[in-house]
Amino acid sequence: xxxxxxxxGAQRQVAGLAGALASCGHTVVLACTEDGxxxxxxxxxxxxxxxxxxxxxxxxxxxxxxxxxxxxxxxxRFDVVHAHVHAATxxxxxxxxxxxxxxxxxxxxxxxxxxxxxxxYSRPLYRRCAxxxxxxx
Length: 137
Description:
Blueprint: E1 2-4, H1 9-23, E2 29-34, H2 38-44, E3 48-51, H3 63-76, E4 81-84, H4 86-99, E5 103-107, H5 116-127, E6 131-134
Parallel strand pairs: 1-2, 2-3, 4-5, 5-6
Helix pairs in contact: 1-2, 3-4
């Protein structure tokens, strides 16, 4: 799960990881809230793309997105949900609990834009995740 498939650092990492997993024989489904240029590269690598929204969800907690991820995880019977970028990670943390699927989060930034409220809701959601990875020291 990633917020969108625009070209950016997080999206490049997601595309590389998803493509590598697919080339090893894993079934990889990438969910996003908005398709973009990285989608063509992923489709060429054998990665299925599911767009879960009509517009990009960014820097928000979206209960609707969490429900959509949970439904996708249940129907797809996934072993794990791996989320990148804030809106996707917050929704995935909620969805994992609903779908009873472990959630792995990769945090790509220090998120200096987050204020006290965002930090307050992020902490308990991250604690629900099986693993939180950081793209930094």
